[in-house]
Amino acid sequence: MPAPAPNAYVPGAVDLPAADAALIARRERVLGPAYRLFYAHPLHIVRGEGVWLYDADGVAYLDAYNNVPSVGHGHPHVVAAIARQAAALNTHTRYLHGDIVAYAERLTATFPAELSQVMFTCTGSEANDLALRIAGAATGGTGVVVTRYAYHGVTAAISALSPALGAGMALGANVRVVDPPDVYRQGPAASEKFAAAVTAAFSDLRAHGHAPSALLVDTVFTSDGTFVEPVGVLAAAAEAARAAGALFIADEVQPGFGRTGSHLWGFARHGVVPDLVTLGKPMGNGHPIAGVVVRPEVLQPFAAQVRYFNTFGGNPVSIAAANAVLDVLEREALCANAAAIGARLRASCLELAERHEAIGDVRGAGLSFAVELVEDRATRSPATALAGRVVNALRERRILLSVSGPNQNILKIRPPLCFGAAHADQLVEALDGVLGEGR
After folding, report:
1. Which of 91, 106, 258, 374 has its CA 20 to 30 A from that of 391?
2. d(C-alpha 383, C-alpha 381), whole Å
3. Residues of 140-163 as b/e, b for ≥16 C-beta within 10 angstroms?
4. Residues 218, 226: Cα–Cα separation, whole Å
5. Are residues 44 and 108 in the same domain?
6. Whole-angstrom Cα distance, residue 328 to residue 84?
7. Which tens digits make up the pLDDT trace of 39-74?
8. pLDDT, tens digit, for every residue of 293-308?
9. Domain range for residue 367?
10. Among 68, 63, 113, which Cα is nearest to 321's?
11. Last residue of a domain, which of 299, 331, 363?
């Protein structure tokens, strides 16, 4: 069995209240051993509101981790939209329904003009799977390049492109991995190195009989450890992919819908127009809806070969949820809020770095944010054990976040976009205290 993450629950490692222990035992009996729980002392969450999660005893936890309910847990406008549509109709896309068309028009209007068509799925995994099929039909190739610790989903095809799932998840023979652009370790040449690695990876794929198909990249490299610089790195990488005969798929499942603050979509920060864009997680604020936005000329070869149908993808209730999310993003100016609060977090964490040697790097765009912990600033060796202790200690202080990166030493901070100044200050104050305990 794979080794647990440093912030994971390890059975038998801590004494639990009898009720929690009994629930975990029931869970393990019926859900099986593949599921995992966060934190040395797991949380029993029963309710969410805004940036807060509440446990079974009514204790509130500040949520600095869950990017799925992006406009806030239980947002009343989204909840009301879901309830109204569920009471009226929920069916599939083989009947005419005006709402799916209106939402598709509204959604694609937020993209560059070249990306004018959208297909709906239920999950980001399905979206990436569909994008891969479309790219294969357009290029005739099968070779795919991803980053070294990427996560793109859990279908059979996409899990083979997701090295973050662990050493037990074998990558496909048609897959090559490249290091993400890490300015902290690679310096200002990170962009050139990334583009060169993409070129080399596609050359190697072709040499082994796999014609290039796609470069698939999370546009803030979330699972790799969140890398948002240098600006323009995705444009250079897309150019390298296209020169090799491949398409560029921008995975916006985690960065999309305003999380980066400056733009609605992560790729837009880099001045590049992808060939396909995949959407998911925050699209319905937790309601299962996802999709692929695509250039028409890229979609056409797939459509000529295959009739696409997804029973639940784009159903009226999901569309109502997704449309309500766009309402809230606009009405509450959540992109601007993400930019402002992200800047506040960055400034505060840089101040923390002056007091705590364990902070090696602070980086992020908007509310996609990372604090990298190291054993030694000179060697930049990852402080994996410390990261696990910090996350668990913050949980005891009723603040929730997690870790990322191949060494699990990077604090992953990605709260709902309604996170405010007071919430950011509370998080930083608690992080300061926890890091101070370790000195």
Report:
1. 258
2. 7
3. ebbbbbbbbbbbbbbbebbbbbbb
4. 9
5. no
6. 17
7. 988 999 999 999 999 999 999 999 999 999 999 999
8. 999 999 999 999 999 9
9. 18-71+334-437
10. 68
11. 331
